[in-house]
């Protein structure tokens, strides 16, 4: 009757897996094009930057979608997890650019610490939120 009563097509986990898969393809193409113009200087960080969104994003959300699991957790857990994957991906690309350019930067190591911490914190908060759901107060009108 109402628009809000319509059934959604596809689950949130399937859409998230698809987005992560597209990001992985973009990173792989970006790395290939960047290294095509790098005068035969290669960086494993640039070549394998697509692995973070693929293994950390598309694979887990694809499994959740395949087994019809909700994957719904708190917004904090989701945001931390997605931010961690993004930080690891960008950190790998930045490190690859620096390697190809032939220089170093002492600040690039912090991408790894922040990214791993965010992914771990998001995972732990999501697991805790799954086993100990927050009770909602019912509203009486």
Helix tally equals 5
Return the domain count: 1
Our estimate of the beta-strand percent is: under 5%
Number of strands: 0
Helices and strands, in order, run as HHHHH
Profile the largest sheet: none
First-residue to last-residue Cα separation = 22 Å
Radius of gyration (CA) equals 19 Å
Overall helicity: 55-70%
Structural class, by secondary structure, is mainly alpha
Mean pLDDT: 86
Principal-axis shape equals elongated
Query: Regions with pLDDT < 50 over 5+ consecutive residues?
Result: none
Task: Tell me about this structure.
The chain starts with 11 loop residues before the first helix and ends in a 10-residue tail after the last helix. Helix 1 (12-36) runs antiparallel to helix 3. The chain has one domain (11-131). It is elongated. The longest helix has 27 residues, at 75-101. It has 5 helices and no strands. With 141 residues, it is mainly α. The chain has helices at 12-36, 44-47, 51-66, 75-101, 109-131. It is 67% helix and 0% strand.
Features:
mainly alpha
Describe the structure in brief:
By secondary structure, this protein is mostly helical. It has five helices and no strands.
Topology:
Layout: H1 12-36, H2 44-47, H3 51-66, H4 75-101, H5 109-131
Helix pairs in contact: 1-3, 3-4, 4-5
């Amino acid at each position: 009757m109402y628009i809000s009563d319509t059934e959604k097509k596809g689950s949130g986990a399937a859409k998230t897996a698809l987005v992560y898969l597209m990001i992985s393809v973009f990173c792989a193409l970006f790395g290939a094009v960047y290294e095509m113009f790098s005068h035969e200087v290669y960086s494993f960080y640039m070549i394998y930057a697509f692995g973070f969104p693929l293994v950390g994003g598309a694979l887990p959300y694809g499994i959740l979608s395949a087994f019809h699991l909700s994957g719904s957790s708190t917004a904090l857990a989701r945001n931390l997890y997605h931010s961690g994957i993004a930080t690891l991906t960008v950190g790998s690309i930045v490190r690859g650019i620096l390697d190809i350019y032939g220089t170093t930067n002492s600040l690039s190591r912090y991408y790894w610490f922040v990214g791993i911490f965010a992914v771990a914190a998001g995972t732990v908060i999501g697991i805790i939120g799954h086993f100990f759901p927050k009770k909602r107060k019912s509203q009486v009108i």
